[in-house]
Structure formats: structure tokens, C-alpha cells
Design brief:
Length: about 150
């Protein structure tokens, strides 16, 4: 009797896992082949915010430096809003535009931040990129199955 109960329990557990998997898969929106998930584009859109947060809280610049940097961030913010409006969901155009906006912001920050502050910012950005790409702090690429 114990053996039969064990077999029935295992079969039920497998069935429950299978049903749960099907429910989860059914809730994911369909994607076109080659279509990227929106997560990358969302990160690209947040480059202005993350850079501001980095110089304020990671690099820890003083209030006067933040005040000098503010107009450059305002321009990047405005450019981003316009890009978002003009691109209307074209993720490639958004990514390309944000690359340009970030490059322009970086050039402007060179006139505001010291060499040491720029190095700290670059190190922080590199660490963030490694985390997203599954580098040393990211624990490896997703879906690797621990291999």
C-alpha cells in the first residue's frame, strides 16, 4: 500500500508541475522571431537616470558639481523624451538614439567632472554592464543551468 501511495504521489507531483508550466507559458505574450524582449530597451531609456544617480550616489560629487551637471542632464532628458515620441516603439531607433544621447552626455560631463570622478563613473558603468551581461557580479549567463 505504501508503494502505491508513493507512486500516485509522484505522478500527481509531475502532473502539477506540468500544468503549472503550461499556465506560465500560456501567459507570456507571443513574440515574432528575432524580436527582442523589452527589458533591454527599458534599460537603454534609463541611461540618463542611472548616470545621474551614479554621479550623485556612487561618485559622490558635491552639490556645486551636481548643479553644473544639471543643464546637461536636462538636455539629455529632453532629447530622450523627443526620441521616444519620434521613434514610436521602434526599439532599434531608440537604442541608436540613446547611444548618441549618452555619448553627448558623456562629452558634456567631461567639462564638469574631474578626471578622478570620470574614472569612478566609468568603473561604475563597467560594473553595471558586467552585471547585466552575466559577468563577475552577475553570476554567469542566464539559462546556463549551472554549467
Amino acid at each position: 500500500m505504501k508503494r502505491m501511495t508513493l507512486i500516485i504521489s509522484i505522478v500527481l507531483a509531475i502532473a502539477i508541475v506540468g500544468v503549472a508550466f503550461q499556465v506560465i507559458q500560456a501567459q507570456q505574450p507571443p513574440r515574432q522571431p528575432g524580436q527582442q524582449r523589452p527589458g533591454g530597451s527599458m534599460r537603454a531609456m534609463q541611461v540618463v537616470e542611472s548616470t545621474w544617480a551614479a554621479i550623485a550616489f556612487e561618485v559622490k560629487v558635491d552639490a556645486a558639481t551636481l548643479e553644473k551637471a544639471r543643464p546637461h542632464f536636462q538636455k539629455a532628458w529632453d532629447d530622450r523624451k523627443q526620441l521616444q515620441k519620434d521613434s514610436a516603439g521602434d526599439f532599434q531607433a531608440i537604442a541608436d538614439g540613446m547611444t548618441k544621447i549618452k555619448a553627448e552626455l558623456d562629452e558634456k560631463l567631461k567639462t564638469v567632472l574631474t578626471k578622478e570622478q570620470l574614472e569612478k563613473l566609468a568603473a561604475w558603468e563597467k560594473a553595471q554592464q558586467q552585471t547585466r551581461m552575466g559577468g563577475p557580479m552577475g553570476g554567469g549567463p542566464r539559462g546556463s543551468g549551472g554549467q
